[in-house]
Amino acid sequence: MQTICRFLARGTLFSLGVLNLAQAGEPHQYRVSIDESMQRMVVEARFSSSVDTVTARSRDAGEFLIDVRDCDDASPIRLRNQRMMLPAGGLRCMNYTVDLAAAARSEVHNRSLAAENIVVSPALWLWRPALDGDDAIHVHFDVPTGLKVSVPWRRLDPAPNSYRFERSPESSDAPAVFGKFDYSEIEVPGAILRVSVLRTGNETGHELNLASINGWLQSTATDVSLAYGRFPNPSPQVVVIPADDQRRSAGAVPFGRVIRDGGEAIELFVNRDQPLQAFLDDWTATHEFSHLMLPYVAPAHRWVSEGFAQYYQNVLLARSGTYEPLDAWQKLYEGLERGRQSRPELSPNEATARGMRNGRMKIYWSGAAIALMADVTLRESSGGTMTLDGVLGRLQDCCLPSDRTWSGPELFETLDMLAGTPVFMPLYKRYADTAGFPDTRPLFDRLGLVVSGNGLKVRRGGELQHIRMAITEADGAGVRREQLAKRGQASRKAAGSAGSR
Ligand SMILES: [Zn+2]
């Protein structure tokens, strides 16, 4: 395992599984204090050795700094060009005060939240030296009794509110949540989800209760864990945020995203006035959780990560019983056709370089075509013993969560090595820089699916129909979802008769 990981990482160690904390360098020690009214944050940063440069990830962070001083002689430290101007010879310790309330006002998340809970990304307040290799910061939060903290960083047990901040792809700005909100730890195969359900400022009176929200997340994460028997990240941060007014009519989960910044976080924006069944039928969370089955792929190859998530979202919802298998194939077919019609003059790499605005469907679906082709090829050539699920399970074993950004070819080469046979890279070479769209139509025919009018029909005798059935085969999750939906109905009735929300 070590050998394979070292090879895959091109000389760098991975953050989990292989990293031995005892061998790593001493971490920097940060103590973060927040007052009861969440107006101010005071940070004491003790560095493991003298540092000469300290920055924050956001260019706006300087606006919220009230005071910065050297711990030892209390001399002030000034800012220039987003950097703290540390004394010549470096600094071992500093303390600084952040206008937390002003930073919270700058975050769009907080527009739909009650004042008792705020989201303020560490990008706005975590001033730190660059982290190389295994460097880390241990952050301890001192918060008044009754206030909670949620960050995506690895927890340092058993100390409460202590975390290990490590190098990461920094794909976007992670959320940090402070205040009074509903926090739960939800167990799914191979993982404990650290779920924070944030409170909205405008109660509708018809809110889906917390148990139902947690049930939905557990069910969805369990579906994803069943791809290869465990959830891809052992302890991700999940933040459930009330959707703002613009998104109130857009279904149960109008928006979600994965952020890899110091750890892996999933933000899900929800409309809690929707019934539990609408949450169970919504694909957003399945899509976002599926992203965690791959490392962070460079924006230039975003079509790979979006495509794999599109493929899995449909396949997993069929396996869970949410979609009839034929409906899932129909959705895949329609998506692939939309991708085929989107910017046919561009290759997937070119479309991605030009951005989402024009080639969105090409970016979302060309990778799904390749995921499907790879899955079928693996199953066909191995007589069903090797699958895309299995190869991604091996990827998780060796390499996830990953602390860095991967290129598309690097990922595909790794998948080939893990599969033990070249399947992915040949597809990449054939399609990534070729105008048009992977031709999946003959494959659908071999899977026993024929186009009939606007829909797909099953054709008896497709030579690969057994593979079609294996890909979308139900696994009993449908029964679990049905029970959950029934429980949700019962608890809503009980809540209704008791006169509470
Ligand atoms: Zn996505």
Tell me what the structure shows:
The chain is an alpha+beta fold. Helix content is 36%, strand content 21%. A seven-stranded mixed β-sheet has the order 3-6-2-1-8-11-10. A five-stranded mixed β-sheet has the order 13-14-15-17-16, covered by helices on one side. Zinc ion binds at residues 287, 291, 306, 309.
Class from helix and strand fractions: alpha+beta
Describe the main β-sheet briefly. 7 strands, mixed
User: Over the alpha carbons, how many angstroms does the gyration radius reach?
Assistant: 24 Å
State the distance separating the first and last CA atoms: 51 Å
Q: Taking strands numbered 1, 2, ... along the chain, how are they ordered across the largest sheet?
A: 3-6-2-1-8-11-10
Q: Helix tally?
A: 15
What amount of the residues lies in strands? 15-25%
Ligands present: zinc ion
Oligomer: single chain
